[in-house]
Amino acid sequence: MTKVIGVRFRSAGKIYFFSPGKYEIKKGDHVIVETARGVEYGTVVSAPKEVEDSEVVKPLKTVLRTASTKDDEQEKNNRVKEKEAFKICLEKIKKHNLEMKLIDAEYTFDNNKILFYFTADGRIDFRELVKDLAAVFKTRIELRQIGVRDETKIIGGYGICGRPLCCHSYLSDFVPVSIKMAKEQSLSLNPTKISGVCGRLMCCLKNEEEVYEELNRKMPSVGDVCKAKDGLEGEVSSVNILRQTIKILVDVDDEKEVHEYKLEELEAIKKKPKKKSGKKNSQDEEEIKELEALEKIEKREGKSKLGED
């Protein structure tokens, strides 16, 4: 077992393990650590704990020191300098007429490097831009191309639920999301309704996937024939997965009526036969194709490029 603390370098960023060394560190403290990018200022998000050796990437680096008042002041100054660097970089991009969208500028704590994050449709030749920026800032320059999901993670905003975006508030890594999850939760397959601010499938589709999978195992589907304990039998017209209720179209005195039952009130369920062929609604086909295209783009973009050290 190894004693570690979890450190973040940006809001909702990845958590990295460091050894607390001789310092008494608690959650919420600020620390100065050495990373592949240089000396960095981070926030402790998990108090010292013991983890399996297999969970730690060797060699495990030790905290250089807990942040002092002077370190806190330097970090604030860096945030101010980043805004100025962002403006200058925008001017240089316009000067070189590059088709790229600047998203963020970030100084390393020791000012050894400035990172500029941008999005673009394809590959960009920014060699001359880097030379210009290096001449202005007199330090190492790195331009990092990111995807639309990372762009949204940096900028932030509010989702259709009215809450701050998951990726900007707490989600450290992007999880794979698929159309199957939307189908499992009986959501509309309209891309505009299940896509997030970034234009990709919403990350929150993953949040309740396991619960829906478990509940769906017990529930009948629309079109199945069910027999209730009161003796009535009919075809399922709709289901409420979370409430575990089923509406069945039954014959009562030569009339069709809709009766609602709880899952435990059903006696038998006869699954409807699967159709071997049949034409799909053209609008549904278009929506599914659009969603499949989104999935392919997400796989191609791969993992998040933010905070890779």
Written account of the structure:
The protein has 8 helices and 13 strands. It has a 5-stranded antiparallel beta sheet. The protein has a 5-stranded antiparallel beta sheet with strand order 12-11-10-9-13, with no helix packed on it. The protein has helices spanning about 70-95, 125-135, 150-155, 165-170, 180-185, 190-195, 210-220, 280-300, and strands spanning about 1-10, 15-20, 30-35, 40-50, 65, 100-105, 115-120, 140-145, 225-230, 235-240, 245-250, 255-260, 265-270. It starts with a strand and ends in an 8-residue tail after the last helix. The longest helix has 27 residues, at about 70-95. The chain has 4 domains: about 1-65, no CATH class; about 75-145, GMP Synthetase, Chain A, domain 3, CATH 3.30.300.20; about 170-210 and about 280-300, no CATH class; about 220-270, SH3 type barrels, CATH 2.30.30.30. Helix 1 (about 70-95) crosses helix 2 (about 125-135). The model has no long low-confidence stretch (mean pLDDT about 85). With about 300 residues, it is an alpha+beta fold.
Topology:
Elements: E1 2-8, E2 16-18, E3 30-35, E4 38-51, E5 65-66, H1 69-95, E6 101-107, E7 113-119, H2 127-137, E8 140-145, H3 148-155, H4 166-169, H5 179-184, H6 191-194, H7 209-218, E9 225-228, E10 233-240, E11 245-252, E12 255-262, E13 266-270, H8 282-301
Parallel strand pairs: 7-8
Antiparallel strand pairs: 1-2, 1-4, 3-4, 3-5, 6-7, 9-10, 9-13, 10-11, 11-12
Helix pairs in contact: 1-2
